[in-house]
Amino acid sequence: MSAIDSIKRSAVLLALGLAAGPAFAQTIAITGGNVALGDGSEPIQGGTVIIRDGRIVAAGRDLAVPAGAQQVDAAGRWVTPGIVAGFSRVGLVEVDAVNATNDTSAGNSPFSAAIDVAPAINPRAAGVAVSRTGGVTRAVVAPETARSIFAGQGAIIDLGADMEPITRARAFQYVELGEAGADEAGGSRASAHVLFRNALREARDLGRTTGISGGGTASREPRASDQRDLPLEEVPEGRLLAAGAQRSEDVLLTRFDAVALVPVLQGRQRLLVHAERASDILQVLALKREFPNLRLVLVGATEGWTVAERIRAAAVPVIANALNDLPSSFEQLAATQSNVARMRSAGVDVSLGLINNEESRQIRLSTQYAGNLVALQKVPGAAGVAWGEALRMITSGPAEALGLGAELGSLKAGRRADVVIWDGDPLENGSAPVMVMIDGVQQPLQNHQTKLRDRYRNVSEGALPKAYER
Q: Each residue of 138-191: pLDDT tens digit?
């Protein structure tokens, strides 16, 4: 356990009134529940989950409870991994229209790709606690574009009740293509695509001047070493910045933006690209011919089902919006709620996120959208997915797409103990969490909404609102 993890566990345990000392060696056994591993398999009735030191030790049926373990009776309940929001802007916004509370984009900044959202994440934002109460324990947080197709570097966060939310900073670079990208690039898709390629070439050239590009060329097959998930801190940024100072004046990116894109060319940082139209998706896939080390993730992909075989062949994962059932723009004319299931049937690795859909506050709806996909199996002519697969799309699926599958998203041994106990089927709208754990630490289930509910639930007639009482 890292020092930060230890501090977080102590702070939360103390806030909950629990003893912090023994927690570092604490063993917890959750017994008797319907245990869903989050790996696509169906629930295990009467299952047990063993947690030690904030990690999953084992999960399954007929497991022996370790001596001295704290036992949690989950009989009649459902036990799942914490929900992982595959796309969000939670923690960056309080009120969209109030600029002082909205850190999603920087319309007046000279920087784009270099922007890192991690310092702007507010773990006390109202949307964080509301989402945690809904069973969301981790979230992919992306910036929003402004004046460029490059929005900047997104983060993976936890939604714990503490002040250390960052699981992985600078986890990916986020790019807008399609209609939004065309607008940011000067008014056309053609401009957006040439701007995209130019930026990658500038970053590649910068890397080559220092001998650490790793970006490859169209003539070289990517090496296995190019595809490692290395901490971004291993990139020699100082050398890159020094080299950037000597660049030609015939460049469009600032020095910091070019440096920020070098890890993308090295394959050390994923590149999330928002594209909805089929033709835009194919243009994104074609980038790998010139830049073979790119670790692409498609975001949105409303028309993905029409080119699913091409996406599968490129081995590019997709984070899709499960609710796009009708065209809301000209780039979504082929919209259908069967999109996700059809891509999955074609062998595409699909997970779910809220793209352009209240992604700052309503990521708790992930379970509802996953449940919709299960229900589609019963709709004539529609395509849905099995229950276990739907849960995977909001747990281990997003974690794997972002390179954190060995750490997050399932109840497999060794994963972080993000565990939720539900009072019913978590993919049914009427169900709610009764316990949420992040890194093995029980989290509070109160938020601004629940406090208002409790405050005014039993106010007697004629009583002044609580706000007027001292």
A: 999 999 999 899 999 999 999 999 999 999 999 999 999 999 999 999 999 999
DSSP 8-state assignment for residue 168: E
Q: Which of 446, 454, 453 is nearest to 129 (CA)?
A: 446
Q: Which two tokens stand for residue 299?
A: 């975001």
Contacts with 433 (C-beta within 8 Å, 6 or more apart), sequence order: 133, 134, 135, 420, 421, 422, 423, 445
Q: Is the dihedral of CA 374, 376, 380, 381 positive or negative?
A: negative
Neighbours of 225 (CB within 10 A): 9
Beta pairing, strands 166-176 & 270-275:
parallel
Inter-residue contact 85 to 138 (CB < 8 Å): yes
Which residues are paired to 273 by β-bridges?
175, 298
In the block, residue with structure tokens 């780039």: 331
**Cα–Cα distance measured from residue 110 to residue 98, given in angstroms and rounded to the nearest whole number:** 22
Tokens of 391: 């849960």
What does the pLDDT read at residue 241? 54
Cite the DSSP H helix spans in 135-188: 178-184
Q: Which residues pair with 433 in a beta bridge?
A: 422
Sorted by where each starts, the structural domains of the chain and their CATH numbers stand as 3-81+423-445 (2.30.40.10), 83-408 (3.20.20.140)
DSSP 8-state class, residue 392: H
Nearest CA-CA partner of 152 in 193, 199, 111:
111
Q: What is the pLDDT of residue 227?
A: 42
Q: Which long-range contacts (CB under 8 A, 24 or more apart) does 71-75 make?
A: 71/28, 71/29, 71/30, 71/31, 72/28, 72/29, 72/30, 72/31, 72/421, 72/435, 73/31, 73/32, 74/30, 74/31, 74/32, 74/33, 74/421, 75/31, 75/32, 75/33
Please tell me the distance from the alpha carbon of residue 27 to that of residue 50, in angstroms, as a whole number. 7
Instruction: List, for residues 46-90, the tens digit of each pLDDT value.
Output: 999 999 999 999 999 999 999 999 999 999 999 999 999 999 999
Residues in the chain: 470
Q: How many CB atoms lie within 10 A of CB 102?
A: 17
Please, are residues 45 and 2 in contact by the beta-carbon 8 Å criterion?
no
Strands 70-73 and 27-35: parallel
Rg (alpha carbons) of the chain, rounded to whole number: 23
Tell me if 441 sits within 8 A of 23, measured CB to CB: yes
Angstrom distance (rounded) from CA 44 to CA 35: 5
Q: How far apart are CA 380 and CA 389, in angstroms?
A: 20
d(CA 437, CA 137): 8
In single-letter form, the type of residue at position 289 comes to R
Instruction: Compute CA 197 distance to the chain's CA centroid, rounded to the nearest angstrom.
Output: 26
